[in-house]
Design goal:
heterodimer, A: about 625 residues, FAD/NAD(P)-binding domain, Elongation Factor Tu (Ef-tu), domain 3, Arc Repressor Mutant, subunit A, B: about 450 residues, alpha/beta, Rossmann fold, 3 domains, seven-stranded mixed beta sheet, about 45% helix
Chain lengths: ~625, ~450
């Protein structure tokens, strides 16, 4: 083994998790190396050529607010942008863009190459080395050893990856890249609980083989909101997407060939995501549906490849051809890359701390699909946190834990490490009990101060944030203090079908009415100073939902006492009396950081939580007495 | 200090006194809402620690009971927090009404062993007691779990589960509709949503309304026979109990103290108190008896007000009738075997139910039973509506009810689905708390089992 280098932090895998981890660690001053199986696969989008979506868009905003890079890159390379859920309320407004796959790769690769303290290297990592339970470095397939004080595993679907198409299967990762075949064994030896998950992707097809006149066209938004709080200037859509539908003939082909699917034939042992069913799953489980939707999305501006969202499959290639061609507009479809299912190795995330460090090996972190999630945004969010904490661990600083009460990232990580997962985890707005407060419009207010404290928010972002916050506050104050007289308001109110004013009311109170928007109120009292379209939106949301947000904040306040009750790492649960056997086992396995986290473990009842709190207080009391005794003896 | 909790600190059931303990940062504010000091200008919120104050518990402006408030200031209290202990008369009707008033004022039901737990956490009890505390919490929760398991077989569990399933379906649909905007998930109309919310809220409304009636059926009710001297109160007691319990003489004022009797009337357990006749008197013993009569009337969950039908109603009768306004009271015009002199319409403004009987004649017993059942609201009670068994369940049902009300307000007020969705979540959590189950991933499960969503 040749020792070829020494780093503070080594990141394994240059997908969305690995990129955020490496950039964050490097920006925080850690000497960082990022290893990838192929430099041509950096920041690959092996599935949807899109970023964002419900809850995922929230994650991207949060990553950006903390100083991560996904939002900026997505803004720079988008093809079409839409704000989803506009009619369903500000808490669930979600940004989603179609992304130019190649440009995204080029943008990110170049960004990595230009990042100070960061070296980008092509190599397959075959082992993680440790001494006395602490990471010391990694070995490569070329028998090189690289020393590191912390290692972040972002192995995606490449770790033990195996691809299935019909009865054919082979070891490999997406897009012709080989799998990482030896690392799993090394990780098992370290005592990490590994398991197998499965996911899948639809075919990529040639644009010329589709009859778009038979499809429904889907345009982007007229006015585009960027992901990043830093992105300024006009943004323009460059492509359209299309919608097609399966029909009974499609379903007949699938049903007739189910026995040839490795999913139904039993060849695949991995557990697939419930929310990402293959088309054969959909046809079997929702037999009553006569058609399923397919989104036809361009993969880039410099390619004719189109992605068929909604048609992921592991049926044999001949069945895929037959099945796709039953669809209206797809009669002459030319498949360029067939759909496939892929199995890969990942960790049971309850073996992780909320800092994303493994409990078994100090200095070893995980992020992304390795931790049992699915999705680029989920991966990037964890990568950012793992990178921050790897750099902090190297410097001997305490790990950062994001509260579930303050962010979707915190919710994601808390769900993973506290509840564990049964299938690949996808973020959803319904997973957050605090979703009226955790909105994408206030991600900066929730997280940028923390990003600044951590050291990822540079002066430019900080100044931008402070100015935006001040302008918003000033406008809120102005609207509260400005009295609108009936003559100013009633014409607009009548137009909106609202009851007229009898006497003066504050502009803020008017804006609180569900039927009125900022523009309506501005027509009465004028526009605020330094108001951008985004700030107008923020001010309106802030006022309209103040009551609901207050209610959520008071719920958050109530949880705080337990959150602030830490549990020592070495706490002996076998001595904990009064709790159920199940609760004791679960507590000992998860080893929660504080009583709040303990209370969220499935199987731990409120009474168990109370017992734990009492036991902790007892221990603290005893420790304090020992300390007092000790002090006395010293004197 | 933590959120404020309240619970009965004395053993449940009958007893001379019952103590309700309120502990937490809002203890004094809660106490001030339910307790009116007797001395004008005094306020329980200003009370110093280690002081007692005499006053009243009122409901809708009517005095329900005389109450003593014992005030403790943090950290010098049992729990180490601000504590007010309200001592009222034992008897489930008054004391549970007082407890409920505390919950309405913002206190939450105390969990098993919670006062003791807080006492420990605040250093008010010694370390050596810690194990005992944990055993206590453990034991009570196991007991609670056993009770919950038993309840799981029961009608309440089935009813709550049905409400929960409807809400999970709604929340699941909402989640699918919101989290998968691009899939063809059927749109959830505000009408449909409002309909589901109203239907499920109606079930909870019925449960909450039925709580008092349910409590009456389970625990029985304190009843008082009141009336002017010699209108036949003791005769009525004897009629009801089926044997001569009270001394009956034609001499007014024979019953000088309260004679008590337990009996079953129309399926309801009744703790009956025959009282001294109410009239102006010089006799000290009798005066004391009359004072107790009024006290009983105020505390009673059922008032049987007896009037002599053979004489015109007197001023004292009307005064008594007035004291019965708003109470669960039955007016009984006795002595119909004699010529009728009393004018029944004089009583109608004060009573919801008036019957005429001759207490000497046992043939009238069924009529009395029926009238009592009517007054208590158990006559036509739907047994399904009487399922909430204790104050904790009631508080949880009310929390769910309030959350559904908020959800409806959001839907009907033109707010967007996200706001309503969070309120539905709150209602679901309250219902999980009611049946003692952990809120699970039910909603997420619902999304993926019912809706075909995903890439």
């Amino acid at each position: 083994m040749n020792r070829l280098g020494n780093y503070d932090v080594i990141v394994v895998g240059a997908g969305h998790a690995g990129i955020e981890a490496a950039v964050a660690a490097a920006k925080l001053g850690a000497r960082t190396a990022l290893f990838t199986l192929t430099l041509d696969g950096v920041a690959n989008l092996p599935c949807n050529p899109s970023i964002g979506g419900t809850a995922k868009g929230h994650l991207v905003r949060e990553i950006d607010a903390l100083g991560g890079v996904m939002g900026i890159a997505a803004d720079a390379t988008f093809l079409q942008s839409r704000m989803l859920n506009m009619g369903k309320g500000p808490a669930v407004h979600s940004l989603r863009v179609q992304t130019d796959r190649k440009k995204y790769h080029i943008y990110m690769k170049h960004l990595l190459e230009c990042t100070k303290n960061l070296e980008l290297k092509q190599a397959q990592i075959t082992a993680v080395c440790t001494r006395q339970g602490h990471v010391t470095g990694v070995e490569t397939q070329l028998h090189a050893f690289y020393g590191a004080k912390a290692v972040v595993l972002c192995t995606g679907t490449y770790l033990g990856g195996r691809i299935f198409v019909g009865d054919a299967s082979y070891d490999g990762g997406p897009d012709g890249v080989h799998a990482a075949t030896q690392l799993t064994q090394s990780l098992r030896k370290l005592g990490l609980p590994l398991r197998r998950f499965k996911t899948g992707t639809p075919a990529r097809v040639h644009r010329r083989s589709i009859d778009f006149s038979r499809l429904v066209c889907q345009k982007g938004d007229d006015s585009i909101q960027p992901f990043s709080f830093l992105t300024k200037g006009e943004m323009k859509n460059r492509v359209d997407c299309y919608i097609a539908f399966t029909n009974e003939a499609t379903h007949d082909v699938i049903r007739a060939n189910l026995h040839r699917s490795p999913l139904y034939g039993g060849a695949i042992e991995g557990i697939g995501p419930r929310y990402c069913p293959s088309i054969e799953d959909k046809v079997v489980r929702f037999a009553e549906k006569t058609r399923h939707q397919i989104f036809v999305e361009p993969c880039g501006e410099d390619t004719e490849e189109m992605y068929l969202q909604g048609m992921s499959s592991s049926l044999p290639e001949d069945v895929q051809n037959a099945m796709y061609r039953t669809i209206d507009g797809f009669e002459h479809l030319e498949i360029m890359r067939p759909a496939y299912a892929i199995e890969y190795d990942c960790i049971d995330p309850t073996a992780l701390c909320p800092t994303l460090e493994t409990k078994a090996v100090k200095g070893l972190f995980g992020a992304g699909q390795f931790n049992g999630t699915s999705g680029y945004e989920e991966a990037a969010a964890q990568g950012l946190l793992a990178g921050i904490n790897a750099a902090r661990a190297v410097r001997g600083q305490q790990g950062v834990v994001l509260a579930r009460q303050e962010s979707y990232i915190g919710t994601l990580v808390d769900d993973l490490v506290t509840k564990g997962v049964m299938d690949p985890y996808r973020m959803m707005t319904s997973r957050s009990e605090y979703r009226l407060y955790l909105r994408q419009d206030n991600a900066d207010e929730r997280l940028t101060p923390l990003g600044r404290a951590i050291g990822l928010v540079d002066d430019a972002r900080w100044a931008d944030f402070c100015a935006r916050k001040a302008a918003k506050q000033a406008e809120l104050t102005r609207l509260e203090q400005t009295v609108v007289r009936p003559v100013q308001a009633n014409e607009v109110l009548a137009k909106r079908g609202e009851p007229p004013l009898q006497s003066g009311a504050s502009a803020a109170d008017l804006l609180r009415r569900p039927a009125l928007h900022y523009g309506d109120v501005a027509s009465m009292v004028g526009d605020g100073e330094a108001m951008t379209p985004f700030l107008r939106y923020c001010v309106e949301v802030e006022l309209k939902y103040a009551g609901y947000v207050r209610r959520q904040k008071s719920q958050i306040e109530r949880t705080r006492r337990y959150e602030n009750m830490p549990i020592p790492e070495e706490f002996d649960y076998s001595l904990l009396t009064g709790v159920s056997l199940e609760a004791r086992e679960k507590l000992a396995k998860i080893r929660p950081r504080n009583v709040g986290q303990a209370s969220r473990i499935p199987g731990v009842s409120p009474a168990d939580t109370a017992c734990l709190a009492v036991a902790l207080a007892k221990q603290q009391g005893a420790a304090a007495r020992r300390q007092a005794q000790h002090n006395k003896e010293e004197i | 200090m933590e959120h404020t909790i309240a619970a009965l600190a004395t053993p449940p059931g009958e007893g001379g006194l019952a103590v309700i303990r309120i502990s937490g940062e809002d203890a004094y504010r809660v106490a001030a809402t339910v307790f009116r000091p007797r001395t004008r200008g005094r306020s329980v919120e200003q009370a110093k620690g280690y002081t007692a104050m005499l006053g009243f518990f009122e409901e809708n402006g009517v005095v329900r009971d005389e109450v003593v408030a014992l005030c403790f200031r943090a950290p010098k209290s049992y729990t180490g927090e601000d504590v007010v202990e309200l001592s009222c008369h034992g008897g489930s009707a008054v004391c549970s009404a007082l407890l409920r008033a505390c919950y309405a004022a913002g206190a939450q039901p105390a969990g098993p062993g919670e006062f003791t737990k807080r006492a420990f956490l605040n250093g008010r009890i010694s370390l050596t007691q810690a194990e005992a505390v944990m055993d206590l919490i453990g034991a009570t929760s196991r007991q609670g779990a056993a009770a919950a398991a038993a309840a799981m077989e029961g009608a309440l569990y089935r009813k709550i589960t049905a409400v929960r399933q409807a809400l999970v379906a709604l929340a699941g649909h909402l989640a699918a509709f919101i989290d998968y905007p691009e899939e063809d998930v059927e749109e959830l109309s505000t009408e449909a949503m409002g309909r589901t919310l109203r239907e499920q809220k109606a079930v909870l409304d019925e449960l909450v309304r039925g709580y008092d009636t349910g409590a009456v059926l389970r625990r029985g009710v304190q009843a008082a026979i009141v009336g002017s001297p010699n209108v036949g109160k003791s005769t009525l007691l004897n009629l009801l109990s089926g044997f001569e319990r009270a001394i009956v003489t034609p001499i007014a004022g024979t019953t000088r103290d309260v004679v008590e009797q337990e009996l079953s009337l129309g399926g309801v357990r009744i703790h009956l108190a025959d009282t001294a006749g109410i009239r102006a008197t010089q006799d000290i013993v009798e005066a004391e008896g009359i004072r107790r009569s009024y006290a009983k009337l105020q505390q009673a969950g059922l008032v049987l007000a007896v009037f002599d039908a053979s004489k015109p109603l007197e001023e004292g009768d009307i005064e008594l009738a007035k004291a019965c306004i708003g109470r669960p009271a039955l007016a009984i015009l006795n002595k119909t075997d004699l010529e009728k002199q009393a004018r029944e319409e004089q009583l109608t403004p004060y009573f919801s139910k008036i019957i005429s009987i001759s207490a000497k004649d046992s043939a009238f017993l069924p009529a009395v039973e029926q009238a009592v059942a009517d007054v208590l609201g158990v006559a036509h009670a739907d047994p399904d509506a009487l399922l909430l068994a204790n104050e904790r369940q009631l508080a949880a049902a009310k929390a769910a009810q309030a959350a559904l009300k908020d959800a409806l307000a959001a839907v009907e007020g033109g707010y967007t689905l996200d706001a309503a969705g969070v309120c539905v979540d709150d209602a679901l959590n309250a219902l999980y708390a009611l049946t003692g189950e952990n809120a699970s991933e039910d909603v997420i499960e619902e999304v993926f089992s019912k809706f075909c969503v995903g890439k």
